[in-house]
Amino acid sequence: MPDGKKSIQHTHDHDLTHSMVHYLLTIHKLKESNGYARVTDIAKEMSLTKGSVSTAVNNLKKRDLVVEDESKFLSLSSSGHEEVHNILSSRTLLYYFLKDFLGVSEEAAHKDSCLMEHLLSEETRDRFFSFMKVMSKDPSKVEIETTLDLTQYSNPEEFLHDQKGDSYLKPDHE
Questions:
Q1: Residue 109: helix, strand or coil by DSSP?
Q2: Is the pTM of this model over 0.85?
Q3: 67: three-class secondary structure by DSSP
Q4: 142 inside domain
Q5: Quick one: which of 88, 108, 134, 139 has the most CB atoms within 10 Å?
Q6: 107 and 64 co-located in one domain
């Protein structure tokens, strides 16, 4: 861009639908828990037909987000893996912001963070991180109690790379 600012990118700028995001998250989850992901596993996990999963996976493969080996095992490509970490980081921050900072119920925080996770820009996610880190470090500034400890991270990138699952992503080293 001429003024030196970087372009704002949202996940939806890449035409990923909410449904596609859930396929990526399911592949990630299955790979993490089972060591592999197949169309049949995804269909079972998402309660869908193998045909609809196959169609969606082919679409994700065309976008270079998913790769398939000769044994029909699916994995996220490096860009697919990066997309999942971005989405999981956004979901985690949104969940805790809604639940702990705004005081909505866990159920509403879960549903709403799931709906919003793929719509945040990197800039907004990073600002959420910074804001929540400051507020959770010095709660005297605002009456906020949160169980999400961001003080262990120096920057949003460390937080982003620490995201491994879908249980609101408390790191393994806690």
A1: helix
A2: no
A3: strand
A4: yes
A5: 88
A6: no
With a cut of 90, say whether residue 1 has pLDDT above it.
no
Residues near 102 by beta carbon (within 8 Å), at least 6 away in sequence = none
- What are the angstrom distances between the C-alpha of 75 and each of 143, 148, 168? 43, 29, 22
Contact 132, 102 (CB under 8 A): no
> Domain of 72?
16-76
Three-state DSSP state, 96? helix
**What is d(CA 121, CA 128) in angstroms, rounded to the nearest whole number?**
11
**pLDDT, the chain, mean:** 84
> Tens digits of per-residue pLDDT, 62-109?
999 999 999 999 999 999 999 999 999 999 999 999 998 889 999 999
Contact 92, 163 (CB under 8 A): yes
The confidence band for 13, taking pLDDT boundaries of 50, 70 and 90, is very low
Which two tokens mark 22?
């859930």
CATH assignment of the domain containing 25: 1.10.10.10
**CA–CA distance from 110 to each of 81, 148, 168 (Å)?**
22, 15, 9
Highest mean pLDDT among 67-81, 112-126, 154-168: 67-81
